[in-house]
Design a protein that fits this description.
CATH topology: GMP Synthetase, Chain A, domain 3
Oligomer: single chain
Radius of gyration: 16 Å
Low-confidence stretches: none
Strand content: 15-25%
Number of helices: 3
Distance between the termini: 42 Å
CATH superfamily: DnaA, N-terminal domain
Shape: elongated
Number of strands: 3
């Protein structure tokens, strides 16, 4: 059995790695879509090569859906870690 101290260190380390990955995705997303769109969108999660992004309203959902393929390609060229590259991009109206 691991002492509690070691378990806590591992949990903190895992959280720091997760925060770094999420910050990288959000930063990359902001650079790809630009300031105006970044203010109206927020990446929510990345799972199984699918990035889900909340948008402020249906107008932004429509606009970004039209640009989906180009956004996927640009996102993938900017992400250095192959495991973080995406195959699918889903937009949904939600909290930004």
């Amino acid at each position: 059995m691991d002492p509690l101290k070691n378990v806590i260190k591992k949990v903190i380390s895992d959280l720091e790695r997760t925060e770094t990955k999420e910050a990288n995705i959000v930063e990359t997303w902001s650079k790809i879509v630009g300031k105006k769109a970044a203010e109206r969108t927020r990446p929510v999660f990345l799972k199984k090569k699918k990035l889900v992004v909340n948008v402020s309203d249906s107008a932004w959902l429509y606009k970004l859906t039209l640009e989906k393929n180009a956004l996927i390609n640009t996102f993938n060229t900017r992400i250095k870690n192959p495991a973080r590259k995406i195959r699918e991009l889903q937009f949904r109206v939600g909290e930004v």
